[in-house]
Q: What sequence folds into this?
């Protein structure tokens, strides 16, 4: 996938792929060293939220205009990236989310998972009025304004749906575009079936509390 | 003085000694030792002055005096556990921030 990203040429911008090794117990570190790619190496395991946020910190520190987060397991095809970046260039939105469910093409996930995704979609709509069809999608692009806000706060575990609540409260414009996703090629989802209920309860509570907190802070 | 009072006093003194030792060895921060010290003192009062419990129970209208002890300490421990959860959450965030900074610094120094 790295090579795909490197091959990607977009009009008028340079891409700098960054990998983050969250203190992985497998051979990630060796692989990354071997591939001679740019990566950050966490001294301890800090989880998905902290690691993604670390990417935003890196983007800010290096004065990047945009940041894109993309799953490393092959679910998100890099060739769809221009769909996410073009609206950012044209200043149509601050945050772009790649969605499986707009045109309903490509890998559509399992029914149980779709139910969960639907639930969060409705929760987000209820809380902050955001109509995002695929709120758990981790294929996202942000502009500088969004990056600066996300450095201040990004949820820890299962961060995607809650991040939408946060970004809407911060007055950022979120837009969803249709992308074609693949089934993951390797690895397992961070959401395992037995913890689905825990995941749903936790993300819901987090979203609700965050919403209440941000509403009372004005 | 009854046997149980003597046992209770010895137990409390042991408890106080333990806390003091932890503080002196730097294993327990003083702010956490305050609540444990306070609990020890309350224990000591009840052990030495046995009637105090009955008097308190009488005052609050509690028929079974020992239940007063249970409810009091249950409440205290509950509050303290919540406090520890708050401390834990704060440390979680601090550790995360430190790890992120280290990762960025590591990359810069290469």
A:
């Amino acid at each position: 996938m790295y090579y795909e990203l490197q091959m990607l040429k977009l009009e008028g911008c340079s891409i700098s792929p960054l990998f983050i090794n969250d203190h992985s117990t497998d051979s990630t570190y060796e692989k990354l060293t071997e591939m001679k790619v740019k990566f950050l190496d966490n001294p301890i395991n800090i989880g998905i939220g902290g690691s993604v946020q670390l990417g935003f910190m890196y983007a800010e520190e290096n004065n990047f205009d945009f940041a894109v987060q993309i799953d490393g397991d092959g679910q998100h095809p890099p060739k769809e990236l221009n769909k996410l970046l073009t609206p950012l260039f044209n200043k149509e939105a601050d945050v772009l989310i790649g969605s499986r469910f707009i045109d309903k093409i490509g890998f559509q996930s399992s029914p149980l998972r779709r139910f969960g995704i639907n639930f969060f979609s409705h929760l987000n709509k209820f809380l902050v009025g955001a109509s995002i069809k695929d709120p758990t999608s981790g294929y996202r692009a942000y502009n500088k304004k969004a990056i600066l806000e996300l450095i201040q706060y990004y949820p820890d575990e299962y961060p995607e749906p809650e991040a939408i609540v946060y970004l809407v409260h911060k007055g950022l414009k979120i837009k969803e575009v249709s992308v074609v996703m693949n089934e993951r090629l390797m690895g397992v989802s961070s959401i395992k079936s037995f913890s689905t209920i825990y995941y749903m309860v936790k993300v819901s509570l987090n979203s609700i509390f965050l919403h209440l907190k941000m509403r009372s802070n004005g | 003085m009854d046997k149980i009072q003597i046992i209770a006093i010895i137990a409390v003194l042991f408890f106080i000694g333990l806390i003091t030792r932890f503080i002196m060895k730097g294993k327990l921060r003083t702010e956490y030792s305050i609540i444990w010290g306070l609990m020890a003192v309350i224990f000591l009062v009840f052990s030495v002055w046995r009637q105090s419990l009955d008097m308190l129970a009488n005052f609050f209208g509690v028929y079974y005096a020992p239940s007063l002890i249970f409810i009091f300490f249950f409440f205290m421990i509950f509050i303290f556990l919540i406090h520890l959860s708050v401390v834990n959450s704060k440390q979680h965030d601090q550790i995360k921030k430190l790890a992120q900074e280290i990762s960025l610094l590591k990359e810069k120094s290469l």
Q: What stands out?
A: The first strand of chain A starts at residue 19 and ends at 21.
